[in-house]
Amino acid sequence: MQVQFCGLTLDGCVYNASGPRTGSSDALAKVGSSKSCAILTKSATLLPQNGNPLPRTYTSPNFSINSEGLPNKSIDYYIDSETIKESVLDSGKPYFVSISGKSLDDNVEMMKRICKAPGVAGIELNLACPNVIGHPIIAYDMVQLRSALKTVASLSLPLPIGIKLPPYFDFIHYQKAAEIINEYKSTISYIVTMNTVGNTLMISPHSGSPVISPKGGYGGLSGPAVKPIALAQVRKFSELLDPSIDIVGVGGVQSGQDVYDMILCGAKVVQVGTCHWIEGPKCFDRIVEEFEEICRKNGVKELEEIRGKLKEWSKKGAALDRQGRKSEPKTSAKGGAKFQSTLDDSSFLLLSVAVVVMIQVLLVMLAQALGHLDVPAVAQFMDNLKA
């Protein structure tokens, strides 16, 4: 299904987030050859950066933490004609450039350079990175946010501009951010919500120390655990922003159902980050196919049929939810692993050995109690059991 996004026609609604596996033309070409509907670069800075000290990433089945510190090859690399050619290849997919300068002046300079480079479809301005040591998150400071957007508006850039936002946790912050963004609706084509949940901490039970090195172990939380937070961002901003501003939903997306949920909340398109990092670019094929199957089952032919159509809570809906959950596989208390009602082969073997030993002991005790022990008979009986 085609989607109209910030003036562009996309063949789908799922593409990559800026992050791991997006730093080189080789990595981006793999995204382009998948069912991702667009290509987005690593967040660029004016000069190349190595990023924070290693280890700076940690993954688990339910969440990931990173404090990469924006490692990248510089803006000049990502807007170079050869890089774009090698990234897009024959896919013809829109090529977006993400930027995250150390200052507003850096961002202005990079945006000017991008607009001079042919082949770039749009700019994603990251105002939400929590992992640069010594630098605040711009979009949490409403004065800075307004100043940044005012400066961007003064440039009158010819390309679509999107801004990446951090997660907000208070309705008043949603409202203030939305008010500022709406003031510049003629400049801002879309928002990307959300970046990682900043400054979280995970401790290894084996070492008693943080699982990553930079910033004392503090890093941005992503992956399945943040999906409820991301859905809330998309839903609330869809209620507050001017309809002309598109919403890109990102956070915890790892399945077709996750994409469907994002669109129900009001997302125009959806980005995939942590799942791409862990699973690789094949995740886009799987997620898109799952999403298309869900749409077929629900009779959805156009995404506008479901976009922003999240239903209100009702007793009927709650009953359907309970019924649906009963049909799902049960989960254990630890880690959400599927409960196994049958023993695996190794467990069955151990149990069998234990039963044989117990029978042997009982026979010996019985024989002793009767005052005699027919060893050959016992041996023959045990051989029969083993057979």
From TrEMBL:
Entry protein name: Dihydroorotate dehydrogenase (fumarate)
Which CDD domains did the record assign? DHOD_1A_like (cd04741)
Q: Where is the composition biased (Basic and acidic residues)?
A: 317-331
Q: Which residues span the membrane?
A: 348-367
State one Pfam family annotation.
DHO_dh
EC number from the UniProt entry: 1.3.98.1
Pathway where it operates: Pyrimidine metabolism; UMP biosynthesis via de novo pathway
Name any cofactors this protein relies on.
FMN
Give the originating organism.
Answer: Triparma strigata
